């Protein structure tokens, strides 16, 4: 399903967040080394001719670890927001113009504003869905969620603090409900990484009340008692209900079904029927990140085991693992030099070696001559022999194999998926 | 809990042989002294904010000094005990108001304070009277910022003041023995070197650090600029002779190597606020503790090799921390701190919070095209097998209790690997299907049946059989009798029933009517075959045999309908009762050999005559779709298309809930009025919005605009009419065009004339931004193949990008 490409990260410390932009052509990473890097993809979709990821900008953003980076809707320009241990969040805008940087392929990002309201580490920053305007939300370790708005979308240096929600618990992550339906009032889910398990309800959901013009707590997921590291609403895409993925000590998927209000003028928050759709502890460790694909059919989670697991529901809403990706390229085709080469990814010259060591040539893209990029196969858990056989040109054969291979990877028959997959 | 010296990490002794004996002595001392230290995280309230604290050599007492406080506390097992209040007298003089305090490390009764009035005071605890003040030096003209005893010389005291001078006092004399003029701004800190007897360092408000030899007061030995802005503090490394840590208002802590000819910055730690104090951690070569002057109340312990994230944090204080000191010079796990919040804390290292544990080591994001970007700590990626499941659980044990000595080394060496998993073309995670579908679907401009047919083909081509079937079903359900493509069946329409053949015939049926040979029939049914195959596949994969039986059994109910209907059809087609007879065995065959497509060719229409509406609604939508196909023939003769609306509505909702809003919207548009009223307006709008948003994500602007145009929701329709203003200037007179026509009202010429063909351009107009000449896109493209110059003849070298 996937081809793994390693990118020379060039960050001097841990990378805490990766974020794609709206169109999936740019990527931003942030790290403890206080910098944010933006990458651009030279991506030509029609030809299936995938390009390389190239670092187009790297700049020091904060004076502490940068926890998160997020893109604004491109309608507002090329805008990034970052938040940091240094208790601030910042908004950055890319400047298009004539400069020497352009010739070196570097773009210039300037700081539009610094939001300094937090007294503690700002742990997450998210732009609100576009239909709400240009709004930015931060949450901090002292348990305060702040919602800022730029009243003038052309002026990114003016942000006014619109709402302050006190969550009582140290916040670690926030997610906006992306639904643009008028039937769904703005809603934000907040996760807490408070390690005290006696406080249950580490996920709180706040909803905007049109009458009071305030955010009020609509729901607390009492069953979540362990620290929550990440939280993500699935893209709504016309659903009447909401799906929320939570990364705690396991992966959980909740379904929030808004119940009909008894009367139209009831001013209280929407009541939800909360269903646990799935709960997986296959990572056997802390789960750090969850991310939905654009159609919200696939959930990716990553945990302390260093694996990315992909989850998919069948037509019965049974969620199953459909793939495990190991980013480290641990033995895939048994070539010993392969792993060795990978440990030196980013060192000029090694990329060639990787190519040489790899036998499954079909999986490699042609632009491997860039010294900064190594490439390798994703380690999909079924035995590599299967993958290698897929090199055969006969497409039907390959499809069959893929089916088998997917069935294997989840250890259970997943026939229905296969049909849907097509 | 007690420590034994065996716990200590192996020390690297970078010391000369001369000092060896001394070290040995120290080690011995450490064993005796340190092993007695124990305690816990504890605090006590002070009467007033503290400015500085200092601890006596054996770590049993701590002195707290401030503007309104000067007390000595004993450090007991489970708390601080006030031992002595040095602030005596009815109206204490300003000499008691301290900016800094230091306890002599050799002489345990001797203390020195820097008074805010510029006095340097020494105190002797051994004095029998209440007032312990011993000496008073009032030589500085302004506040004294720092006092420092010589580490090995009993009577030598150094002070640094706001007036820019440093003075060295011999406690046996009444006056200073030497004065050092930094000849720059105020002195913020002075520190005797731990290892070089004669050397001390001084830091200044202008960012400089000076090194002095105590014997040469005339000029400094070295000077370098350490920070931009004031250098508030400096601290010599207890072991590494040449290492000096400095902290400044520029929020940085820098470690300098003084042992070389050129002073070299070897580490730089960026903190989040100006650095007020810095103290090397005993026994941990790379660790230092800092506290801040404002804003930040926490105490951080950094590993200088990993300068970005604190190794440990103490978060107890509620106000600015003013003084930090390690409790014992060989004990790395107790830190004492005083604060403006009037508390004195003893911090246990094991109770420190570790920001790195809360920092997530991974980043993960799904891209638009189904690619996954994944960044993870490299140690996670290489998959340490022996890794603890919950790393946070280890925090209960202080770092030095680990038998592995390399824990701090592990902390220091981290990096992340970033990889992108790109979805393979054609794989289930990719989004090519979405784009292809969006681009190929026809939503308008053709008769309904053709649109359905086309879209079914598109879906089929993309191997999306379920969607393909849906389109076919929709065509069957809603095809109207008057459909021009079904002209051959006009006679049937008179009967008032929907003609059965409609559903499958299309154009070929006319041929079928005439010739009715088998080959033709095979052609006719090719669309049906897809249906059947789909059904087969569905049933096969779902393994729903029970439903198959159900379906079959129920069919008997409808036999009457079946016959009557068939009769109608056959009346048109002459051979009576042929169809029903063939139909029954065929149904059996399908049930028995669902994968065999051959039986279908015998008589395509009939096998579908089964099923019931009750079933359709109770089954999962996917199956119901396949059953709709089965049941439709049965009902269509009697039922208006409206009958299917609930089912179609349910189907659309199903697609939307499955995340395929594309299908929902496409069907909605194609069906138009047939279904529109059935579905909640708000929901429709929601679907449209979601789909348009998706299309725009994929930069499918044309499709998006088409959807907007075809939508029936008011809120959607206005999407492409809002906030798009075109300002047009006349290409001749370069003035704004005010009227709506093609002629500029100022120069009375046609505004947008093609420079190539000299006709007014309506539609795509391309122009050069340099000379503003342009014209029809095709014309200009053609022109530029031949010439680089502007077609208008203005001589401009046009660039069209």
UniProtKB/TrEMBL annotation, chain A:
GO BP field:
cell division; cellular response to amino acid starvation; chromosome segregation; positive regulation of TORC1 signaling; protein transport
Principal place of residence: nucleus
Which SMART domains has this protein been placed in?
WD40
What's in the keyword line of the UniProt record?
A: Cell cycle, Cell division, Centromere, Chromosome partition, Kinetochore, Lysosome, Mitosis, mRNA transport, Nuclear pore complex, Nucleus, Protein transport, Repeat, Translocation, Transport, WD repeat
Q: Which GO terms describe its molecular function?
A: structural molecule activity
Supply the Pfam families for this chain.
WD40
| GO cellular component assignments | kinetochore; lysosomal membrane; nuclear pore outer ring; Seh1-associated complex
User: Where is the protein situated, by its record's location annotation?
Assistant: Chromosome, Centromere, Kinetochore; Lysosome membrane; Nucleus, Nuclear pore complex
Which sections of the protein are WD repeats?
Answer: 280-312
> What job does this protein perform?
Component of the Nup107-160 subcomplex of the nuclear pore complex (NPC). The Nup107-160 subcomplex is required for the assembly of a functional NPC. The Nup107-160 subcomplex is also required for normal kinetochore microtubule attachment, mitotic progression and chromosome segregation. This subunit plays a role in recruitment of the Nup107-160 subcomplex to the kinetochore.
Q: Which family does it belong to?
A: Belongs to the WD repeat SEC13 family.
What name does the UniProt record give this protein? Answer: Nucleoporin SEH1
TrEMBL record, chain B:
The pathway where this protein functions is: Protein modification; protein ubiquitination
Annotated localization: Lysosome membrane
The EC category is transferase
The record, for InterPro entries, names: WD40/YVTN_repeat-like_dom_sf (IPR015943), WD40_repeat_CS (IPR019775), WD40_repeat_dom_sf (IPR036322), WD40_rpt (IPR001680), WDR24 (IPR037590)
Which reaction(s) does its UniProt entry say it catalyses? S-ubiquitinyl-[E2 ubiquitin-conjugating enzyme]-L-cysteine + [acceptor protein]-L-lysine = [E2 ubiquitin-conjugating enzyme]-L-cysteine + N(6)-ubiquitinyl-[acceptor protein]-L-lysine
Q: Identify the PROSITE patterns for this entry.
A: WD_REPEATS_1 (PS00678), WD_REPEATS_2 (PS50082), WD_REPEATS_REGION (PS50294)
E.C. number: 2.3.2.27
Q: Where is this region: Disordered?
A: 592-614
User: Per the record's keyword annotation, is DNA damage included, yes or no?
Assistant: no
Coiled coil spans = none
GO molecular-function term, one example from the UniProt record:
ubiquitin protein ligase activity
Q: Name one GO biological process term.
A: positive regulation of TORC1 signaling
Q: Keywords on this record?
A: Autophagy, Lysosome, Membrane, Metal-binding, Repeat, Transferase, Ubl conjugation pathway, WD repeat, Zinc, Zinc-finger
Q: Where are the WD repeats?
A: 137-179, 224-266
- What Pfam families would the database entry show? WD40
Supply one GO CC term from the record: cytosol
Family recorded in the similarity comment = Belongs to the WD repeat WDR24 family.
Outline what the protein does.
Catalytic component of the GATOR2 complex, a multiprotein complex that acts as an activator of the amino acid-sensing branch of the mTORC1 signaling pathway. The GATOR2 complex indirectly activates mTORC1 through the inhibition of the GATOR1 subcomplex. GATOR2 probably acts as an E3 ubiquitin-protein ligase toward GATOR1. In the presence of abundant amino acids, the GATOR2 complex mediates ubiquitination of the NPRL2 core component of the GATOR1 complex, leading to GATOR1 inactivation. In the absence of amino acids, GATOR2 is inhibited, activating the GATOR1 complex.
Q: What is this protein called?
A: GATOR2 complex protein WDR24
Origin species, per record, is Anabarilius grahami
């Amino acid at each position: 399903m996937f081809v793994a490409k390693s990118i020379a990260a060039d960050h001097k410390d841990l990378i805490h967040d990766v974020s794609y932009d709206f169109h999936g052509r740019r990527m931003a990473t942030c790290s403890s080394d206080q910098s944010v890097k933006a990458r651009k993809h030279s991506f030509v979709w029609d030809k299936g001719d995938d390009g390389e990821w190239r670092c187009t900008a790297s700049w020091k953003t904060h004076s502490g670890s940068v926890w998160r980076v997020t893109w604004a809707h491109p309608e507002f320009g090329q805008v990034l927001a970052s938040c940091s241990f240094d208790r601030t969040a910042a908004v950055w805008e890319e400047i298009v113009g004539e400069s020497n940087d352009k010739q070196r392929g570097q773009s210039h990002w300037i700081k539009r504003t610094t939001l300094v309201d937090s007294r503690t580490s700002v742990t997450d920053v998210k732009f609100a869905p576009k239909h709400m305007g240009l709004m930015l939300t931060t949450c901090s370790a002292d348990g305060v969620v702040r919602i800022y708005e730029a009243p003038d979308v052309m002026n990114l240096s003016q942000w006014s603090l619109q709402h302050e929600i006190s969550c009582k618990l140290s916040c670690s992550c926030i997610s906006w409900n992306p639904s643009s339906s008028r039937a769904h009032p703005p809603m934000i889910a907040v996760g807490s990484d408070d390690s005290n398990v006696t406080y249950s309800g580490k996920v709180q959901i706040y909803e905007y009340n049109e009458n009071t013009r305030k955010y009020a707590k609509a729901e607390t997921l009492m069953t979540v008692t362990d620290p929550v590291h990440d939280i993500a609403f699935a893209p709504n895409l016309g659903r009447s209900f909401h799906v929320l993925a939570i990364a705690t000590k396991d992966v959980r998927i909740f379904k929030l079904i808004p119940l009909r209000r008894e009367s139209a003028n009831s001013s209280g928050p929407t009541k939800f029927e909360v269903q646990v759709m799935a709960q997986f502890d296959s990572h056997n460790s802390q789960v750090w990140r969850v991310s939905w694909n654009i159609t919200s059919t696939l959930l990716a989670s990553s945990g302390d085991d260093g694996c990315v697991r992909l989850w998919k529901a069948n037509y019965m809403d049974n969620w199953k693992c459909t793939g495990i990706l190991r980013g480290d390229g641990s033995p895939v085709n048994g070539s010993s030099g392969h792993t060795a080469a990978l440990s030196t990814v980013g060192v000029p010259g090694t990329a060639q070696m990787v190519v040489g060591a790899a036998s499954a040539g079909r999986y490699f893209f042609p632009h491997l001559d860039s010294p900064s990029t190594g490439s390798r196969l994703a380690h999909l858990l079924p035995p590599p022999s299967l993958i290698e056989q897929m090199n055969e040109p006969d497409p039907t054969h390959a499809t069959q194999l893929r089916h088998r291979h997917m069935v294997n990877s989840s250890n259970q028959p997943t026939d229905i998926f296969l049909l849907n997959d097509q | 809990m007690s420590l034994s010296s065996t716990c200590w990490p192996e020390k690297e002794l970078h010391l000369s042989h001369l000092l060896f004996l001394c070290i040995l002595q120290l080690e011995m001392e450490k064993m005796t002294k340190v092993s007695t230290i124990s305690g816990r995280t504890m605090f006590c309230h002070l009467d007033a904010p503290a400015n500085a604290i200092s601890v006596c050599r054996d770590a049993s007492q701590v002195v707290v000094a401030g503007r309104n406080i000067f007390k000595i506390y004993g450090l007991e097992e489970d708390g601080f005990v006030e031992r002595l209040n040095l602030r005596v007298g009815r109206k204490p003089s300003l000499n008691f108001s301290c900016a800094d305090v230091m306890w002599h490390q050799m002489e345990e009764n001797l203390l020195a304070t820097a008074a805010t009035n510029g006095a340097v005071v020494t105190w002797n605890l051994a004095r029998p009277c209440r007032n312990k003040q011993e000496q008073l030096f009032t030589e500085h003209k302004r506040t004294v910022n720092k006092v420092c005893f010589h580490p090995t010389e009993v009577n030598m005291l150094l002070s640094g003041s706001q007036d820019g001078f440093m003075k060295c006092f011999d406690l046996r004399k009444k006056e200073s023995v030497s004065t050092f003029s930094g000849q720059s701004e105020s002195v913020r800190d002075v520190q005797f070197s731990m290892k070089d007897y004669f050397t001390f360092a001084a830091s200044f408000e202008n960012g400089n650090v000076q090194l002095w030899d105590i014997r040469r007061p005339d000029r400094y030995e070295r000077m370098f600029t350490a920070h931009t802005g004031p250098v508030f503090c400096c601290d010599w490394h207890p072991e590494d002779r040449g290492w000096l840590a400095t902290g400044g208002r520029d929020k940085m802590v820098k470690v300098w190597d003084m042992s070389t000819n050129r002073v070299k910055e070897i580490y730089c730690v960026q903190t989040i606020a100006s650095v007020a104090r810095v103290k090397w951690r005993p026994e941990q070569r790379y660790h230092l503790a800092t506290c801040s002057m404002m804003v930040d109340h926490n105490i951080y312990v950094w590993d200088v090799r990993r300068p970005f994230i604190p190794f440990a944090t103490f978060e107890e204080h509620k106000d600015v921390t003013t003084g930090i000191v390690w409790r014992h010079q060989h004990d790395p796990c107790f830190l004492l701190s005083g604060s403006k919040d009037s508390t004195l804390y003893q911090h246990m290292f094991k109770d420190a919070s570790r920001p790195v544990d809360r920092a997530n080591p991974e980043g993960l994001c799904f891209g638009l095209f189904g690619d996954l970007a994944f960044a993870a700590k490299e140690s996670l990626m290489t998959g340490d097998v022996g890794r603890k499941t919950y790393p946070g659980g280890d925090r209960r044990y202080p770092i030095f209790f680990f038998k592995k000595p390399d824990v701090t080394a592990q902390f220091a060496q981290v990096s992340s690997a970033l990889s992108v998993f790109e979805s393979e073309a054609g794989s289930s995670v990719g989004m090519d299907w979405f784009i292809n579908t969006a681009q190929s679907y026809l939503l308008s401009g053709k008769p309904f049946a053709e649109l359905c047919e086309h879209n079914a083909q598109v879906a089929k081509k993309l191997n999306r059989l379920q969607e393909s079937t849906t389109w076919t079903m929709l065509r069957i359900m809603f095809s109207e009798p008057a459909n021009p493509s079904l002209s051959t069946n006009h006679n049937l329409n008179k009967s008032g029933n929907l003609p059965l053949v409609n559903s499958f015939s299309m154009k070929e049926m006319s041929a079928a009517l005439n010739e009715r040979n088998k080959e033709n029939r095979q052609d006719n049914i090719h669309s049906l075959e897809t249906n059947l195959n789909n059904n087969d596949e569905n049933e096969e994969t779902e393994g729903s045999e029970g439903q198959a039986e159900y379906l079959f059994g129920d069919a008997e109910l409808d036999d009457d309908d079946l016959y009557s209907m068939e009769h109608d059809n056959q009346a048109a087609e002459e051979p009576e009762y042929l169809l029903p007879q063939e139909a029954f065995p065929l149904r059996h065959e399908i049930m028995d050999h669902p994968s065999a497509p051959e039986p279908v060719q015998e008589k395509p229409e009939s096998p579908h005559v089964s099923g019931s509406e009750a079933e359709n609604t109770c089954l999962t939508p996917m199956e119901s779709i396949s059953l709709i196909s089965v049941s439709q023939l049965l009902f269509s003769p009697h039922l208006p298309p409206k009958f299917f609306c609930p089912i179609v509505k349910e189907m659309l909702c199903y697609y939307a809930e499955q995340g395929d809003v594309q299908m929902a919207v496409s069907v909605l548009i194609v069906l138009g009025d047939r279904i529109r009223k059935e579905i909640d307006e708000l929901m429709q709008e929601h679907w449209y919005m979601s789909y348009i948003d998706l299309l725009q994500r994929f930069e499918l602007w044309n499709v998006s605009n088409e959807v907007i145009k075809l939508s029936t929701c008011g809120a959607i329709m206005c999407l492409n009419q809002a906030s798009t203003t075109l300002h047009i200037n006349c290409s001749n007179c370069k003035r704004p065009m005010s009227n709506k026509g093609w002629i500029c009202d100022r120069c009375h010429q046609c505004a947008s004339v093609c420079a190539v063909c000299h006709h007014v351009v309506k539609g795509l107009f391309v122009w050069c931004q340099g000379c503003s000449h342009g014209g029809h896109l095709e014309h200009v493209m053609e022109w530029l193949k031949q010439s680089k110059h502007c077609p208008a003849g203005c001589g401009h070298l046009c660039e069209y990008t």
